């Protein structure tokens, strides 16, 4: 949220670059997505693959949510138009521990 423009550009342009590279070298593409594509306040718990979400495209975290949605859309567009083999992993509720 600190720099929404950079967040959107990094995720979307990064995905486009990786899709282009995968197409060029005939590789498979795996996108690590997020539950945020369903919106910050989903009306369904847990979300299923056919749930379309409760999306706010101008909310405080929208830069991240929308960038992830565009990344998923680009992957499926490349799959359809370019016959690129893609997978989208929707990762939910992850956390980590810092080890020192």
TrEMBL record:
It comes from the Eukaryota. One of its GO terms (biological process) is UDP-D-xylose biosynthetic process. Pfam families: GDP_Man_Dehyd. Coiled coil: none annotated. It is found in: Golgi apparatus, Golgi stack membrane. Its cofactor is NAD(+). Its EC number is 4.1.1.35. It is a single-pass type II membrane protein. Residues 3-96 form the NAD(P)-binding domain. It is an enzyme of class 4 (lyase). This is UDP-glucuronate decarboxylase.
